Structure formats: C-alpha cells, structure tokens
Amino acid sequence: METTEMVIDKIEEVSEESTSTSSLSKGDLSFQIEKEILLNGLKIVERATAQKGLQPVLANILIDAVDKNTINLYATDFDMSIITSIEAQVSSTGRITLPARKLIDIISRLNDGIINFELNNTIMSITSGKSKFEILGISATEFPQIEMLSDEDNEIEIDLKPFITGIKEAGFAAASYESNNNLLSGVVCDINKNVLEIASTDGNRLARARKIITNRDDKTIKLIVPAKVLQEFLKISYFIDEDTIRIYTKNNKIMIKSNNITMISSIMNGQYPQYNQLIPQSFPKEAKVNVQKIISALERVSTMVDEKKNSVKLSFTNNSLSLMADTPEAGNSEDEIDILYCGEDILIAFNYRYLLECFKNIEAENMIICMNTNLSATVIKPDNEEDFIYLIMPVQIR
What we know:
Blueprint: H1 4-18, E1 30-34, H2 35-46, E2 60-67, E3 70-76, E4 80-87, E5 89-92, E6 94-99, H3 100-109, E7 114-120, E8 123-128, E9 131-136, E10 155-159, H4 160-170, E11 186-192, E12 195-201, E13 205-212, E14 220-226, H5 227-236, E15 244-250, E16 253-257, E17 261-266, E18 285-290, H6 291-301, E19 311-317, E20 320-327, E21 331-338, E22 346-351, H7 352-361, E23 366-371, E24 378-382, E25 388-392
Antiparallel strand pairs: 1-5, 1-7, 2-3, 2-6, 3-4, 4-17, 7-8, 8-9, 10-15, 11-12, 11-14, 12-13, 13-25, 15-16, 16-17, 18-23, 19-20, 19-22, 20-21, 23-24, 24-25
C-alpha cells in the first residue's frame, strides 16, 4: 500500500514533466492529485450537497486550493455542511465549484494514478493518461459562506469509537423529518463527565445507549442533533484515523471535527420527552433469543406481511417462538425458532421493521425480550454487559 510520501513523490514527478512547481502562481486553479485521495474526499463532502435545491450551486462541491500541498473540499445544503482537507500538488491556487455527481462519476471511472486539473475561467479540464474531460463549473463567489465554530470554551473532546457505536445503536429510532413533532426527528446526545448517552424515539419506539468515554475536562453538554446529521457522520467516520473527535457548540450550532473532516449543523431546541421515565423496571416474562436466528426468521416471515400494517405476530411458548404473518389477498407465513423461555404463553404483535432495525444495529449474540402484556411496552436488551435498551410498543392483534 502506498504511503503519503510515495504519493506526493509520484505527483511531483508528473508535475515536473509539465510545469515547474518551485513557486505557486496566482492564476487559474491548477493541481495534480492521486485518484483515490480525491475520490475519498469527494465522497465525504458529497453527502452535504443539495441536488434539488433552489440554488444550483448547492449541488456543487467547492474546490479550494489553499497552499502547495492542500486542497479543501466544501459542500452544504444550508442545514448541514461538510469540509475535508486532502493532499495534492498545487501549481496555481484558486477556487471553483463543480457538480458533485458528475465529478464523482468521472473520477470513479478513471484509471488509478495521477489526475491533472486545469481551470480556465469556469471550465475545468480533467486529464488522466489519454482520458480528458471538461466540466462547466459555477464561480466560487456564488457558494454560501460556511460559518466555522472555534470558541474553545464550548469544546469537548471525546473518544470516537463509543460515539460512533452509540449513534449506530440508538440513533435509528428517530421520527422522519415530516413527523407531527419535528423535535422527534432529532437524537439526544447527553455527555455527563465520563458517560455518553444517545437516545432517539418516534413515539412508538425508543432506543437508548450509554457508553463510557474519556472526557478530558469532565465537561457536560446535552444537545438534540438532527438524526440525518448523525447518520451521515456515521457513514463518513470510516475516513477518520484519530481516536478522538472534538465537538463545538455555539449559537444553536454544532461542529464535529477531526483532523481532516469537519461537519457543521444546526441543533434543535425544545423539550425532548423524558424518555427514561417511560422504561418499565420489571417484567414477568423474559425470553432469550439468538439474534441471527430471529433476524432470519423475521425476514422469511415478512415476505407475506400485510404492507399496510407491517405487523408480525410472535407466539412465545415453552422454549419456542413462532412467528406469523398474513395478507388476506396473498396468503400467510409461519416460522419457528428455539429460544429460552419458561413463562406463561403470550401472543404479541409488532411492526416487523422496528424489530429488524433493533436486532441489526446492536452487536450481540443473544438478546433478552422483556414483556408484560400483549399491549404494554416491551423492552429488548442484549444479554451481555452492553448498556442498551430498546423499547417498542406492540400493535393490536385483530
């Protein structure tokens, strides 16, 4: 695998063949870059572009060559902004915005190696080997100004891994943005000394995860962050090499920052439901199920589910779980798996999608399903030491 030094050396060799890079010019933007480095950077920021926005420039990525070795990439849809810094060999500094999808489409199809970029007014020439493209861009002056946060008084540095795990486990249960209660489309991020709590609910289910973190200054903060923002951060976190991230808050905004990636978003204001008070403390019926077995059974049975209701019936009997679904116009399905259960028989129904999302987002071999009645809140939790709780309301059996 090539090191950064090897990539820079290769770029310099190609650059020396075409033009001297001993000093930067201030003409139109010109640079050379390794394909993989550029493609990764574009994929990171593309998530913040707005393909159907009122302003065409919001579908573009701003390319800004800041010095002889660095290019910054920017994208924003006004609700969320993403910035990343990548390494390149810059001959002439400058700025231009190019259409994100078209640019990624071109770069992904080029052969591996060095790609040359030359800007003439607003037309970017891209060459790699014998391949050549010209893309019409939009002037960087039309790109919105992105406000950076830098107030160190509102900075918290925490471990990256538990933050990512917490988002994956407990950030998926938020409501869609179009819900009646807009606040429920957010995710609670509560940092209290060395404990990180992440929770989300849409009114029918609740996911909550608690993680032990290293909080350098024992700071406390509680925010409601749009679920979309955290889900997008989860996807780009793959490109972060550090063990920690820094979180800044100021003027109803949040900035999540690593050495090479910055994400900025508005935070949500309002009174989030007191979700911890909703979690029952005792259950007369508990079943232990294997996660992979119940996922497979749910996926099989759901092929015959009524798409209007999405409900699957679960029948718990002595060490056995039967799963059933039916659609009046199409037929029915049934499956059975072995479990550990010795309580009273109970028939209970759930939205099968809610169950699958829970089982697929928690890393555990076995889960405990805790029940009272077939109409009261059910809690699902791992059988290991993981501090995770998923509360789900049953649907009425007709």
